[in-house]
Each structure stands twice: as structure tokens, then as C-alpha cells.
Amino acid sequence: MLFNLDGAVADLHRDGHRAAFNAAFAAHGLPVRWDVEQYRHALRIRDDRRRIAAALRRRGYGRDSAALAAEVLRTKDALFERCVLDGDVSPRPGLIDLVTSLFVAGIDVAVVSTGARSWVEPLVRQLIGDGLAATVVSRDDLTVVGPDPDVYGHALWELGLPPEHALAVESSAAGLSAATAAKLTTLVVTTPYTAGQDFTGAAAVRHRYDEPQPLRASGCVALHRRWLVANG
Fold it and tell me: Is 92's pLDDT higher than 60?
């Protein structure tokens, strides 16, 4: 099984990116601090710089908003690694039990991310421990990094598996698109930020790993088999 670190393993938007944005605003002395609900609304603007500029314009910064937003974003990017590794980032409820059941069943686990190896690998160890992930793929493992880096393809190559022998776990419509582009059967486990998105093409959609019925290796195998039979 291949898990996207950002969303499927941990809610990095809520606990990582949001914290880094707030730290950057504070570093620039700006009166902006996004709580969980405010950040959910802010994410309607997908571009980071435009999102910051919109928040600044609402607070009266006018024409200075665009230039100031660029400075805040540079600071946020510089602070992100520390905010993630030293902050309050935890695995999603039920994930560790699922990963443990996969390990016991002899099913390899991979974690993929478009982030930098400098924080991806230590965060994976911090979240799920050493030895449970057979491979961790970051953008630094790719020879070509475009707007949609093929971290899934690289993970499959490292595992020595064709896509039909693997199941991806994503949390967003964009992630689902990336996984299905790699020809992977995909389970979506939403976050509060992605629950209303369009997940057409997913093998299944659930909101948590631990509810209503805890997800385990046997359930993942059955889901994967049903999807392949229905769509083969």
C-alpha cells in the first residue's frame, strides 16, 4: 500500500502548513492568525501567495499586499520544516493499527510526498516509527520534477510492483488524480479540508481509518480485489 504523507498519513495542512503560515505572519508582525476553520476557508484560494495577499487586503494593506505576501511566503517556506518536525503533527487516528496489520500480513508499505527529503524522512519515522515503511519517496528521489511529480511511479519501481498489485491511499481530489494517473486503485480517506471534494474514480471513500469499522489489511485486500474485478 502506498500512502501520501500529506493527508493520508497526517493532516499536514492543518498541523504543518497552517502553523508555518501563522509563524510567518507573526515573524513579519502581521495581525493574521488562521485557526482551523479560518484556514479551511482560506484554502479555497489554491495559490499560496494569492491566499496570503487576500488575507492582507482584508486587513487594509491594499497595494502592498502582493509584495508583502511574497515575503511572508518565503518566510513560511523557511519555517515549514521546523514547524513540521517540532510541532504538533500526529498520525491520523487508526493509521498505526492499519500499518501494523499490513506489516504483520507481509504487505509492503510505502510513503510518498512531493516534499523535500530533509523533512519527509524524519517525519515518517516520527509518525510511524522505523522499519514499517519499505520505502519513502520524496521529490529529491526524482530525476525530473514537474508540476505533478511522479512519486507513485518511483515508489512502484522501488517496490518492484506493477500498479495493479498496489493500493494507494489519498485524501484529496488532486491526490486521487495523481494516483489514478499512475494507474493505481485508490482509497480516499478525507480530511475536514477535503471532505466536500469530487472523488469520482476512487475505489472507496471514508472519513477515518478507525470509524465506523476500523480498516485493517484484510479489508484493504478485499477492497482492492473487488475494484479490480469490477473494473478489470
Answer: yes
